[in-house]
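ARCHIVE RECORD
Type: protein–small molecule complex
Small molecule: iron/sulfur cluster
Source of inputs: curated submission
Record status: active
Notes field left blank by submitter.
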Amino acid sequence: MLEYIGLTVVVPPMTSKRTIVLGTQYAPEFACLPLKINIGNFIEAKEHGADTFLMAGGVGPCRFGLYGQLEAEILGELGIDYDALIIEPPDKGIWQFVRRVRKITGSASWLRVLQGIHLGYRKACCIDSLERVVESVRPRERAEGTADRIFKQALSTIDRANNNTELEEAAGLARQKLQHIPQNEDMDVLKIGLVGEIYTLLEPFASGDVERKLGRMGAHVVRSIYLSDWVNGHLLGGFFRRKGQEEYKNYAKPYLNHFVGGHGIESIGAGVFFANNGFDGIIHIAPLTCMPEIVAHCIFPKVSEDLDIPVMTIYLDEQAGEEGLNTRLEAFVDLLARKREARETYRAI
Amino acid sequence: MACKVGIPRALLYYRFSRLWPVFFEKIGYEVKISDETNKATIDRGAASVVDEVCLPVKIFFGHLDWLSDCAVDYLFVPRIVSIEKKAYICPKVMGLPDMAAAAKKDYPPLISPLINNIGGEKDEEYIRELSPYFSCGKKRLKQAWLEAKKEQTRYDHTISKELWIKEGLKDNDSEVLNVLVLSHCYVAHDRYLNMNLLEKLNEARCRVILPENISDEFLEREVRGLKKRPFWTYGKQLLGSAFWFSRMPGRKGAIILTTFGCGIDSFIGNMAERHFKKAGIPYLIITLDEHTGQAGLETRVEAFLDMLRWRRKHYENNFPPYGEYLDTATRDAGIHRAYSCCTSYDK
Ligand code: SF4
Ligand code: SF4
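STRUCTURE (tokenized, with ligand):
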């Protein structure tokens, strides 16, 4: 998006083990995982020559709002001199955001800025709709990993797209490819709702790839938050009308009646929504010590009991062991499968 | 028969220890405040909420649990979102009523009015929030509310002036150390949780300064220098007092007293630490958890105080620290004098 407006963008290398190690080294011990990864990302981006960081901000009540401040201090101490541009979520709607972006870009014309923002948003939407296809294909595909490979390719073609036509083309092509993957049509798939803190939902590395793993175990996973929801809700002040987030929030009553920062209320709401829509189970993921999600975690048992749906909460931190995670996921999927079987026999009788 | 309402002695009870009891009494309720925290409280709390919550919230649930066995008709668990303009309290505190409703055990009905002062404090809003819970008329509610508020304000006034000074500890005692204890009020005043740290410091001839002793105007002014104003009440209080403290004359030390699992302190504590490091003020970080041992804590605090005393003596004998033109007693009283003189410093 920013490239379109005429800036060189250094995208930090994909988050890796090293990123987390770097981040953990410099971040406060009990800070949440996203902060650690973030700091790691910045350090790595610096190594690649970035001099200005772009960072989204917020005003509480969650810790995310203070990331910018703390990061500036930490990086400052490391002698990384950095120019931070913190994009605060515009309370005053989209115009404030447009103005900020323009400030960053300097000379670009207004029209171009607007077009850039729009294109960026469209890209996010395309990626999301492709991801939904991938999610449904993944458990059914015959050759494991095909969908993911196609999706990865699509990401880079979409990234290169310079205008709407190119974007449509790239997305359309990828969609067709996905739909032609050989699948086990009659397979009985479990449906699992994945809810939780946004960062762990969106960044596969942080979540230990929960989504993909579940897909391979034969479950159709639907997430509660997709990238475009966040871009729209958080950066653009809900400029593009659409359903989603708002609705999830409404389902949270009577379990959680007030926002608690972060995505706590969406987690609960989406959980209830999934439960009411015939999902088999819910997996709730969050970074360790994440405050809003701890609140959600306390409330989930009640949701689970009332709506008769198994819920598993997984906390992720930098020491998360791959093995342990796999076992837990497998056990959960097993449980769901057995539950479904039991229900079906019951129905047969 | 009068209704009986249980108020847990935890979290923001310590901030509003007069307000709610007085309010309930005025409208004719019988008030039961849970006993001070003890070992059993923590155990009960740990059994009723998930493991990941911070210690103070666990303690809160311990109190709730205890109260629910006391034949109370209601439990008072307000939904506190914000207690002052432009600052939130912690997300976990906001979610308390819902967490309590989802707890394993069935509690008596909750009275949980929404308290949100983010846009400024308005009496009418309180009354509106409170009225569905009570059968008495609005007029009576309002009267009770105003009286309770007055009582709380008066109480606040006394504590903000009163430092934690033991009787007999004279202001001009040159051995007295000034120690700032950075902590949330429900940690500082929960004697079981902090193992009586404040009194111990007093006994070791320290003048203990808590964030609540420093007036809000100063705190507000101190954090104004930050690029981004901390949007948590406790964040603001802690950082503000850290900044304020480091400008006060005299030798001093700070104790950052936090609890395990506090999300806010993981950030704010870290920022305060950085600040103290830069300002060259000795500090000690204590993180309390369920297993903190009394002995270990005492040793650490003693070592810290020894170090402060040693530093003071050492520096005094060699080269004068700034402000040496004041005699020691006056200098150490700097903290006291600050009340009268720092109204004029500008920033
Ligand atoms: S939502 Fe959770 S992980 Fe994100 S900033 Fe807040 S506490 Fe940290
Ligand atoms: S401020 Fe910290 S200690 Fe207090 S409730 Fe929130 S997380 Fe717990």
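CURATOR ANNOTATION: Residues B 54, 56-57, 90, 92-93, 184, 234, 259, 262-265 surround iron/sulfur cluster (ligand 2) (CB under 6 Å).
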